[in-house]
Amino acid sequence: MDPAILRNVALFQGLTQSQLQKIGSLASERSFPASAPIFKEGDSGLAMYVIVEGKVRISKQVPGVGEEALAILEKGQYFGEMALIEEGPRSADAIAHVSCKLYEIPREKLDQLMFTDKELAYVVLWTFVRTLSERLRETNDKIRGFFALSAFGPR
Questions:
Q1: Is 48 exposed, middle or buried (0-12, 13-18, 19+ CB in 10 A)?
Q2: CA angle 74, 4, 78 (to 5 degrees)
Q3: Buried (b) or exposed (e) across 112-145, using 16+ Cβ within 10 A?
Q4: Inter-residue contact 104 to 38 (CB < 8 Å)
Q5: Of 35, 56, 69, 96, which residue is most buried, by most CB within 10 angstroms?
Q6: pLDDT tens column, 45-96
């Protein structure tokens, strides 16, 4: 895998060239056709993904409503990183919005690398914290908007 691609991914921008090469050596390339599931809510989280080409839709199934898209991610963005922090099940579906090429980084291998390279771990984990905080704020705003709409909707 080309470490130059990782340099443009927000999660890895604070890493040195050597650290990027270490991360790159962990990744394997995966391709998905449009509308193919990458993972489903409830699946075991065994890896995170970096989008090399295409777009990925992150969504949840809402009973009585259907699919609610939470985000459409594009080249250079990443997803599934919560699997690297906790061993819980996936919290949403990831679907190839259009055909896409991804780099898959297994949790077990990244854990081992972060255990042996503490400086790399420090940079990556702080970036995780910022990303999760931003996503939580976005989710809170969506929930607030949903409740505002439901309060004024037809009764």
A1: buried
A2: 30
A3: ebbeebeebeebbeebbeeeeeeeeeeeeeeeee
A4: no
A5: 56
A6: 999 999 999 999 999 988 888 888 889 999 999 999 888 778 889 989 999 9
